[in-house]
Amino acid sequence: MASYKNLDLKQLHRLAAALALTLKGRGATIGLTGTLGAGKTTFVQGFAKALGIKKISSPTFVIRHDHRARRSNLYHLDFYRLTKASQLKNLGLMELLGRNNLILIEWVEKFSKIEKLCDIVVTFKIKPGNVRDITIKAN
């Protein structure tokens, strides 16, 4: 487990980029947990940019965005609006797992079975002064 204290948004982007470069060309499922506005989508943006993907937006309303990167596919999911496990079936998530895909899932903590399938869980805690504490844990 690794912990990072008092990161501003630039530092959050750099941390995400470093993780992306470490995982580039390999598959991994990354769960992102934290309150609304804690930096989950900002983290995904930094991660994607390191892979050469320029435009990332929150998939809160569409739930899943697919992006092609040079050596991996990036799948960005957001479980914020989901309330029942049955809603996960139409996302095709199980078909994406175990392949050479990078999967980032915001609000993964809403479904403990999916969280347990994550290779890495990143937890965000927003603090006064627009800084965050980040914990990265390998499952």
TrEMBL record:
Keyword Magnesium: yes
One Pfam family in the UniProt entry: TsaE
SUPFAM superfamilies documented for this protein: P-loop containing nucleoside triphosphate hydrolases
Any one GO BP annotation for this protein: tRNA threonylcarbamoyladenosine modification
An example Gene Ontology CC term for this record: cytoplasm
InterPro entries per record: P-loop_NTPase, T6A_TsaE
Gene3D superfamilies recorded: P-loop containing nucleotide triphosphate hydrolases
Entry keywords, A to Z: ATP-binding, Cytoplasm, Magnesium, Metal-binding, Nucleotide-binding, Transferase, tRNA processing
One annotated GO molecular function: ATP binding
Cellular localization per UniProt: Cytoplasm
TM stretches of this protein: none
NCBIfam families: T6A_YjeE (TIGR00150)
Protein family per UniProt: Belongs to the TsaE family.
Designated name of the protein: tRNA threonylcarbamoyladenosine biosynthesis protein TsaE
Taxonomic lineage of the native organism: Bacteria, Candidatus Doudnaibacteriota
